[in-house]
Amino acid sequence: MPPSHSRPEFFLDRSLARRIVADLLRSAVWNLRTHIEVYGERDQDVPDVEWLELCGRSGWAVLTKDARIRRRRAEVAVIRRHGVKAFVLAAGNMRAVDQARRFDDNRAAIEAACADRGPFVYAVRAGGLERIFPE
Fold this sequence. Notes:
By secondary structure, the chain is of the alpha/beta class. It has helices spanning 18-27, 35-39, 48-58, 73-82, 96-105, 107-114, and strands at residues 9-12, 31-34, 61-64, 85-89, 120-125, 128-133. Strands 2-1-3-4-5-6 form a six-stranded mixed beta sheet, sandwiched between helices. The model has no long low-confidence stretch (mean pLDDT 92).
């Protein structure tokens, strides 16, 4: 498939260090929306199934560090039903700057994967991407 002329849009989950990761990725010219930008004051009250459905319907790929979304029944159902494309940091205990760097270091592979149809979840590792859902 030829490369897309437009870059994918991403949704930055609240599990990531909000402002720092968003600012660093935006400075690297990532096209993204943050959880708090989309939901405002409701931010902490929005269940995962709600924002996952929005991402699937809107065509936004998910950036998160919450690897459990691929194991929870309700989240899995939404990921499948709405063709969600998600990228999960394999090491969740990283500093914000390292979280942003890990995504940016894997940017070419992430953007290439976004050209495929969802649903899927990839682990974002230092050495590249690993598809972890569906298994």
